[in-house]
Amino acid sequence: MRAVVYEGPRQISVKDVPDARIERPTDVLVQITSTNICGSDLHMYEGRTDFEPGRWFGHENLGQVIEVGDGVDKVRVGEYVVLPFNIACGHCKNCERGLTNYCLTAQPEPSMAGAAYGFADMGPWAGGQAELLRVPWGDFNCLRLGEDAQERQADYVMLSDIFPTGYHATEMAAVEPGDQTVIYGAGPVGLMAALSATIRGASKVMVVDRHPDRLRLAESIGAIPIDDSTVDPVQAVLDQTMGLGADNGCECVGYQAHDPSGDEQPNLTMNRLVASVRFTGRIGTVGVFVPQDPGASDDLARQGRIAFDFGTFWFKGQHVGSGQAPVKRYNRRLRDLIAAGKTEPSFIVSHELPLDRAPEAYEHFDKREDGWTKVVLHPVGS
Ligand SMILES: NC(=O)c1ccc[n+]([C@@H]2O[C@H](COP(=O)([O-])OP(=O)(O)OC[C@H]3O[C@@H](n4cnc5c(N)ncnc54)[C@H](O)[C@@H]3O)[C@@H](O)[C@H]2O)c1
Ligand SMILES: [Zn+2]
Ligand SMILES: [Zn+2]
């Protein structure tokens, strides 16, 4: 089968790799029809993780079941399914508590928890930017889709990661009806957090970034765009909230946060959130931060540390939630909102391309070029 193989920093190729296949009775084999490129892939693509050359990417996957193992009860051949990026067993201590983002079985390293397809430090699992994907514990991990699945793939594929992840940010931030919410980052994840805040009834959603195309998308769903290359975003949020600050906030950028000129400052968004959110407000951090970052520009960051304004954070009595999103906690409900025509997360999709065009798509998306907001690859079908 063909797959998007990592060769080294900013070097990928689409080439033949061994076919994915059923290896255990509980496996499901999926022919991938839609698979997204994610901001998380870019950390690996840029060589800012220890993702091993020769492995292939792809954790935002949707496709059609072509084979099931003998131990699979629910999922049937021919059905369209969307897969949470978290691979989870369903029966470990964490999965039992709904923490499928920290499964203990799917992660072979005993000191770690959590697994994903085609991802650094998240187990040995192959990615889905390929024609076929092996889904372990298939009954637990597959979310089945209805009859409109094939034609509405661009909406449903967002259930694999970024829509539930954006929603999780607003859950950790405890966004409630009437709230005023600020979101740092208008990438795909930030835009999904903005959509989720709206679904939860926020009265005002403010989105901070500096890319005009991404800010326009935020505006298209009723959010207030704040361009931090032209204004001080903290002051802009205070101005919008009678000087009190937002009720809550979401971090959707991560450790490669930078100023508008491109200089990395991994503490920039967290400290701006502390300053933009009012006393006692909550912050949901879904942007990825890492325990070590050898490619960082300063010593602190190389050790996975940031200079966090803990004094102000403590003084304001704020709370912060963090980590990978437990996609399974939300994907069924969000699927039903899509199916009912209540929401269309595909508004962020800028490009739908065949798998062979992955190298150019990575290059453009990595540069956050104007108009490249979200790429869906189609290994099979179009
Ligand atoms: N927790 C999870 O489960 C989970 C899941 C998916 C993605 N992520 C992470 O979420 C983050 C965002 O992903 P994405 O796909 O949207 O990526 P992206 O890189 O396309 O988007 C990030 C956006 O942040 C903006 N940005 C950079 N510095 C900023 C700053 N100082 N202030 C405001 N905006 C700034 C960039 O201009 C860009 O538009 C990444 O770190 C990704 O790894 C986490
Ligand atoms: Zn992702
Ligand atoms: Zn588990």
TrEMBL record:
Q: Which residues form the Alcohol dehydrogenase-like N-terminal domain?
A: 25-138
- By its UniProt entry, which Gene3D superfamilies does this protein fall under? Medium-chain alcohol dehydrogenases, catalytic domain, NAD(P)-binding Rossmann-like Domain
In this record, what's one Pfam family?
ADH_N
Q: Give the EC number.
A: 1.2.1.46
- Signal listed as a keyword: no
The answer to whether UniProt assigns keyword Transferase to this entry is: no
Q: Which cofactor does it need?
A: Zn(2+)
**SUPFAM superfamilies reported in the protein's UniProt record:** GroES-like, NAD(P)-binding Rossmann-fold domains
Keyword annotations from UniProtKB, A to Z: Metal-binding, NAD, Oxidoreductase, Zinc
EC class name: oxidoreductase
In this chain the Alcohol dehydrogenase-like C-terminal domain maps to: 188-292
- CDD domains in the cross-refs: PFDH_like (cd08282)
* Listed GO MF terms: formaldehyde dehydrogenase (NAD+) activity; metal ion binding
What PANTHER family does UniProt report for this protein, alphabetically? Answer: GLUTATHIONE-INDEPENDENT FORMALDEHYDE DEHYDROGENASE, ZINC-TYPE ALCOHOL DEHYDROGENASE-LIKE
Q: Which family does it belong to?
A: Belongs to the zinc-containing alcohol dehydrogenase family.
Under which name does UniProt file this protein?
A: Glutathione-independent formaldehyde dehydrogenase
- Organism equals Pseudonocardia alni
